Amino acid sequence: MAAPPRSVVILGGGTAGWMTANLLHRRWSEHGTTVTLIESKDIGIIGVGEGSTPQLKAFFDEIGVAETEWMPRCNATYKAGIEFEGWSDRPGFERYFHPFGTEVDLFTQPKFFFATQARRTGRDIPAHPDSFFLAARIAREGRAPISPPNFPFSVSYGYHFDAHLIGAFLRELGTGRGIQHIDARIESVELDDSGNIAALIADDGRRFEGDFFVDASGFRATVIEGALGVAHRSFAENLFNDRAVVAPTPHGTGPIQACTRATAKSAGWIWHIPLTNRIGNGYVYSSRYIDDEDAAAELREHLGLPADAEVRHLRMRCGRIDRSWAKNCLAVGLAQGFLEPLEATALHIVLATVRAFLEAWEKDGSEPFNDKIARRYEGIRDYLVCHYRTAQRRDTEYWRDATRMDRLSESLKGLITAWFTGADLRQEVMRQGIAGYYGPMSWHCMLAGYGNFPDEAMLKPPGPDIPPIDMAQVERFVSGCAMNFPSHCDALDRLGEGA
Ligand SMILES: Cc1cc2nc3c(=O)[nH]c(=O)nc-3n(C[C@H](O)[C@H](O)[C@H](O)COP(=O)(O)OP(=O)(O)OC[C@H]3O[C@@H](n4cnc5c(N)ncnc54)[C@H](O)[C@@H]3O)c2cc1C
To answer: How many whole angstroms from 45 Cα to the centroid of ligand 1?
Structure first.
């Protein structure tokens, strides 16, 4: 087992930098490792990225922080999944919910898989995912995905949070635990004779030496690309979106739903992320199909904002660097790669990267680690590409191009073929070994959720070979389970009371 480095220097104080600093400090400080984080207040952070997967819960659990400590400080809410709206114009499939998993799904999921296979092969059996999954019901009813103490099944969930406040929280936590924090603007990187990083040099001449470095400098990728020259692989050929325009809005009068909403628009989609004090909104689009002003106008119109309402424009670079760990440097966050935010996976990848890195440091070194991270990016990329490829709308050039785009990986071709030929999709996901990125439930929900089935007029009734499903029984079961869950507002109030 390799000894931990004596000193780690992290460049970047965005969410990725502070998550990494806290994780490395947690694991290595007892061995005497010092962790220093350098950031430039003048440069600042990107300030978006307000939705998570359940991995963020795993992160806070790992660094020993309770929800009552961080959630109220970050205006955070619970997230049971993502609702996709307007991605399909097939009747009955105008929206669907991509749920985070629960143990209750073990009872309903087999029925759902059976239903989708029967419908794919021409039987008139209801196969919309929302009826089968508890998380979808919890969000729709304005509940929180928090299991009451007497509920015997576990439920996984993510969060929404304010990107600036979570950074501030993690900074305060980390510095309180012994992480050194320095405000400096790094101007150059000094390499030693073997090509390793020796020091980061600030614009005022300060020199920061370390044994190991983390590049969390955002899209600038100052160290990993700038100094070490690791190549960036773009995903632009099959993920078109490269811009975002964002604007917050106040809450309306209804309950705060425990989900992100992703609404398809003329050249991309708009996110809707409810925090306790505001809603975060952003239009993710492709500059090949719409210009910045028209995108801003479409966002304002969607939100009911006046034509001169202030918005913020962002550029995105989808892709990943060739090697996340090169020489004595690990890249995390936007410096490492970025997949457009449709499934809110960026912070999920930060945690997966740091965990895999710590394991690799102790065991097998950088090569297997880099392969593992590259496969994760590509696995998630394929799932995102599948959203666009199998969406059922063709009303603009953007959607016509997205739905006939043929630059698909072999893995994704295999999955799509399995679905449309009536084969067992679960088996195909397992055969390919990709369930660690998205499992069979997620693939089924997406493909069924957009209504990728034969036309209704062509469906035959179920028969003795393929029996119908008792949907009333499924409904009773799912709604009976959902009734146990508190309202989202009550759950958030209880956090504020420190319960
Ligand atoms: C439109 C959009 C929507 C997104 N939505 C989601 C989402 O819903 N969920 C999700 O998980 N992720 C999302 N992301 C990604 C998310 O924003 C980032 O993964 C997350 O904020 C972490 O960013 P970061 O820390 O890597 O970079 P940044 O926040 O950009 O931080 C970079 C840091 O490096 C410092 N720095 C850079 N250069 C220097 C230098 N030379 N000297 C000193 N300091 C320097 C900066 O000061 C800053 O502190 C989204 C991204 C975009 C663009």
So the answer is: 6
Cα distance between residue 204 and residue 264, in whole Å: 47
pLDDT tens sequence across 188-225? 999 999 999 999 999 999 999 999 999 999 999 999 99
- What is the CA(301)–ligand 1 centre distance, in A? 28
Task: Return the structure tokens found at 496.
Answer: 């504020």
C-alpha 58/C-alpha 320 separation (Å) is: 24
Verify whether ligand 1 is closer than 6 Å to residue 99 (CB atom): no
407: left (phi over 0), alpha (psi -120 to 50) or beta: beta
pTM higher than the cut 0.85: yes
Answer whether 20's CB lies under 8 Å from 325's CB.
Answer: no
| The pair of three-digit structure tokens given for residue 128, joined into one six-digit string | 């919309």
For residues 375 and 435, the answer to whether their CB atoms sit within 8 Å is: no
| Torsion angle of the four alpha carbons 144, 149, 154, 158, in this order, in degrees rounded to the nearest 10 | 30
For 395-425, give the DSSP string. SSHHHHHHHH-----HHHHHHHHHHHTT--H
